[in-house]
Design goal:
Shape: flat
Helix content: under 10%
Mean pLDDT: 88
Number of helices: 3
Low-confidence stretches: 39-43
Largest sheet: 26 strands, mixed
Length: 549
């Protein structure tokens, strides 16, 4: 069966307001509805959440979308499926309110008319799906084609995949005791239900073959782990996996839309993209949460895109990479979403990555945030090995991460960092406050915009370019032989800096951009924090240099 729950105006009597005009209550009353499964994953969500969500007028109004009663869509729960003998566990809240902004236009004049009245009705209309037969063996809409395939158990799901059905909808929670192969393009909508490992099964749940695609939405894929903290350690009283939640073959596409959740996998990866095989992961509001492995919840050398509403949170690595381990030529693009509250025992609280010569890893961080991640080693937010490019722009934030060293990022050999926007702030390096922002060894660094509120430490043999007006942290320069120049961007504001007082100290200088014309007082923008030294303009070399005060 399929059923619609409806709220209708069954009768209404108008009245005359104090301005002498006729009015109806339905023109001013507003209605909003909210629907929830009573039980989910063993918890009575209605008893837990509904009192908080609808216990007061203010809370109720904040949890629904209101529309005018006379114009509202009367269907609360459209075409909800219900199997034979099943009782629905849907709990519905209906909020009816008169906005406080309504005045005398809805205030009736008792000398001219009776009070207005309105009667509302609640009805449930049930019909059969087009593919079902009635008690007389007549099939409804015989020639109609379903745009999805409903499945209520593992066998039906296997048959649907074997038949290469394009759109599959779960109508029940399903436990799987075997790997489900996907060798074509399919969308699976869970309708809020869960696909989980059956007792005794530890293998991969979805194996997406080469050149195939799997799109998940409104579904929980649960690995069966029960991770809890005991005596300072995280222990698992549930399933220890030998296979991934999703394994992707060459050029396979994995899409996690809104409501898709990959959770509770321990020992392997939530998503395995392989190494340099062209697989992709796109997150359009999906979540990857509460997983543990030796190297990230997402692993591989493919292409990862994270969009608004997506989350990779609360994952644990017993090695590097709390959330994502980028291997070889891997591209990560963040257009929104968050990577938060992940933990790595060693380096890269959120992300650990490296590239190779000719196969650089690329990070395009345009929006969203990486925050509150922790690394036992270096790089509370990000650790890059060699041959990587990091582009930070827009309103992206890397904030409030913690590591023993390099609170926000550790960037190493042959890494390129371009920062034209974004924000780096509030990160903590417990072992060295000089680089609570990031430590860069031989980085090719360009900062021309954004906010850099943390300290950074630059060492090695490349010439950085620094400017913009958002640098409030201190920049530490540990310069190398023949690399004692810092290029200034065309626009530069105040920069506080310290130079390592080694053999190259006397040669240190800031070189303005081409076309720069010295203005008296510009040297005051370059604030030398070395005791006993100041910055001055050297007209002979056309650079800013240091001298004893």
């Amino acid at each position: 069966m399929k059923y619609n729950l409806k709220v209708d105006i069954s009768a209404e009597k108008p009245s005359i307001n104090t301005k002498g005009a006729e009015f109806k209550l339905s023109d001013y009353l507003q209605i909003g509805t909210y629907c929830m499964d009573e039980y989910s994953s063993g918890a009575n969500y209605a008893n837990i959440l509904f009192p908080a969500m609808f216990g007061t007028r203010e809370a109720a109004l904040s949890n629904v979308t209101l529309s005018k009663l006379s114009e509202a869509d009367s269907i609360v729960r459209p075409n909800a499926p219900m199997l034979p003998g099943e009782q629905t566990s849907q709990i519905v809240a209906i909020v009816l309110t008169m906005p406080e902004t309504v005045g005398n236009e809805a205030n009736f004049d008792s000398t001219k008319a009776e009070a207005p009245e309105i009667d509302l009705g609640i009805s449930v209309v049930a019909t059969q799906f087009t593919h079902e037969y009635d008690s007389f063996d007549n099939r409804y809409d015989t020639d109609a084609t379903l745009d999805f395939t409903p499945v209520a158990n593992l066998n039906q799901l296997k048959i649907a995949l074997a038949n290469k059905e394009k759109n599959i909808v779960l109508t029940q929670n399903i436990e799987s005791d075997e790997t489900l192969a996907v060798d074509y393009g399919v969308t699976i909508n869970g309708a809020g239900y869960t696909l989980s490992r059956a007792p005794g099964f530890t293998g991969t749940i979805f194996d997406v073959k080469a050149n195939s695609s799997l799109t998940l939405e409104d579904i929980i894929v649960d690995g069966g782990a029960v991770l809890q903290t005991s005596s300072g350690s995280v222990v698992n009283s549930g399933v220890v996996a030998t296979g991934d939640l999703i394994n992707a073959g060459a050029n396979a596409e994995i899409v996690l839309n809104s409501g898709a959740v990959l959770q509770n996998n321990d020992g392997t990866f939530a998503v395995n993209l392989g190494t340099r095989i062209g697989a992709t992961l796109t997150m359009n509001g999906g979540w990857i949460i509460n997983n543990r492995s030796g190297a990230g919840a997402v692993w591989g050398g493919g292409h990862i895109t994270i969009n608004e509403g997506s989350k990779i949170n609360n994952n644990i690595s017993t090695g590097p990479a709390g959330a994502i381990r980028m291997v070889g030529k891997c591209n990560l693009t963040m257009n929104g979403g968050e990577i938060c509250n992940n933990t790595a025992a060693t380096d890269g609280g959120a992300i650990w990555g490296y590239g190779t010569n000719g196969n650089s890893s690329v990070y395009n961080l345009n929006s969203g945030k990486i925050s509150n991640n922790t690394a036992g080693g270096v790089g509370g937010g990000i650790y890059t090995g060699t041959y990587s490019t990091i582009n930070i722009s827009g309103d992206f934030e890397i904030c409030d991460n913690t590591a023993a060293d390099s609170g926000a990022m550790r960037i190493t050999n042959y890494t390129v960092l371009n920062m034209t926007g974004g924000k780096i702030s509030g990160n903590v390096s417990t072992g060295n406050e000089n680089n609570n922002g990031f430590y860069g060894w031989c980085p090719r660094l360009t900062i021309t915009g954004g906010e850099l509120n943390d300290n950074i430490y630059l060492a090695g043999g490349h010439t950085p370019t620094i400017g913009g007006d958002g640098i409030t942290g201190t920049v530490y320069f540990n310069i190398g032989t023949n690399h004692n120049t810092v290029n200034l961007a065309a626009e530069f504001g105040s920069i506080k800096f310290i130079v390592h007082e080694g053999g190259n100290f006397a040669a240190f200088n800031f070189k303005p951009a081409t076309g720069y014309t010295y203005t008296d007082g510009d040297e005051a923008k370059l604030v030398c924090m070395n005791s006993g030294y100041e910055t001055y303009w050297d007209s002979t070399t056309q650079t800013f240099r240091l001298r004893a005060e």
